[in-house]
Amino acid sequence: MNKINKILIGTNNDGKYEEICQLLPINVKKYSAKQFRIESPAEVGKNFKENSYIKASYFSQKTNMICLSDDSGLEIDLLKKQPGIYSSRWAGRKNDFNQAIKKVFKKMKEEKKDWTDNRRARFVCSLTIFWPNKKYVTVTGTVKGKISKEKKGNKGFGYDPIFIPDGYTKTFGELDPSIKMSIDHRYKAFLKIKNFF
């Protein structure tokens, strides 16, 4: 099997692009969807796997390059696994995750006034590599944890400031990025495909 030495990372999200670049070996040449000015496709899949496939196949076919795409999100047990695949949509058109985090707290309070005993949650990430010959592989990684009682930390992006991974007392927003990167859902998914690089 030929190792992949250059790849298009199929996202227009800067935070995601940075994290995926850091997971990939240094010698792999990385391109972003922004460099090609390609708008992201509509995410019409029913789950993370389908959405990561939609993005990877779309960007690959637009550029005729091997593409790696991620679809990830936060599932909260009390909210019946919401926001799930709609995690970024909760942030609205402006991608305002402060707004999304407020929505999480509001909805949890609506479900249960004192929700502090019902905080179980997980981050899920599906990664798809799609080749121009239409061959593809999709894998999924999960990190379990709980929702923080308040927003903490300014590292990371998205819902990181309200997610405390199991075994830790700090949120992803407070943890050193190198620690987060070694335990999170994206890293766990990447381990399953790293032999392609």
Describe, in short, the structure shown.
The chain is an alpha/beta fold and 197 residues long.
Write the layout of secondary structure elements.
Elements: E1 6-9, H1 14-23, E2 29-32, H2 48-63, E3 67-76, E4 82-83, H3 97-111, E5 120-130, E6 136-147, E7 163-165, H4 177-183, H5 185-191
Parallel strand pairs: 1-2, 1-3
Antiparallel strand pairs: 3-4, 3-5, 5-6, 6-7
Based on secondary structure, the structural category is alpha/beta
* Cα-based radius of gyration, to the nearest Å: 17 Å
* Biggest sheet descriptor: 7 strands, mixed
* Beta-strand percentage range: 15-25%
CATH architecture: Alpha-Beta Complex
CATH class label? Alpha Beta
How many strand elements? 7
Task: Give start-end ranges of low-pLDDT stretches.
Answer: none
Which percent range fits the helix content? 25-40%
* Amino- and carboxy-terminal Cα gap: 10 Å
In total, the number of domains comes to 1
Number of helices: 5
**Principal-axes shape call:** globular
Fold-level CATH name: Maf protein
Mean pLDDT: 95
Q: What series of H and E elements makes up the topology? A: EHEHEEHEEEHH
Folded structure, characterized:
Helices cover 28% and strands 23% of the residues. By secondary structure, the chain is α/β, with parallel strands linked by helices. It has a single domain, classed as Maf protein (Alpha-Beta Complex), CATH 3.90.950. Strands 1, 2, 3, 4, 5, 6 and 7 form a seven-stranded mixed beta sheet that branches. The longest helix is centred in the N-terminal third of the chain and has 16 residues, at 48-63. The relative contact order is 0.16.
